[in-house]
Amino acid sequence: MTVLKRYVLRIFISLKHITANVVDRNHGHIVATSSTAEHSIKQSLECGRSCNAKAAAVVGEILAMRLKVEGLKDGQGRGIHVNVTKEIEKKGFKSQTKVWAIVNALKNNGVKLIDEDDGNDSSPSHS
């Protein structure tokens, strides 16, 4: 049985770190990840005691680059699903700028996202 929403974006926010994963639900594994806990990212940011929206945007940009390397920026034609409202509710209202920073960084770097809130394709428009 194949899952229609095969690739899903999951975001984890703690007091010190921000992590974004794209999960392949058919095979149950992470296909791409990016986190402020990574040495190379941590050194380039000044997070101090907590990470901000700027750090979240960097995590989103790096995740987008890794998806492109894996050939998955469009989720193999089906897109990468994300429910922004659900992610914000899980993380708390104070983390909404970080969630949106990751989502917008992915969109701005050409990743095809499908927002499950409204079911519409939220990939960047090419004018």
Automatic annotation (TrEMBL):
GO MF, one annotated term: 5S rRNA binding
GO cellular component: ribonucleoprotein complex; ribosome
An example Gene Ontology biological process: translation
Keyword annotations of the record: Ribonucleoprotein, Ribosomal protein
One Pfam family linked to the record: Ribosomal_L18p
SUPFAM superfamilies: Translational machinery components
Record PANTHER family: 39S RIBOSOMAL PROTEIN L18, MITOCHONDRIAL, OS09G0549700 PROTEIN
Similarity annotation: Belongs to the universal ribosomal protein uL18 family.
UniProt-recorded name of the protein: 50S ribosomal protein
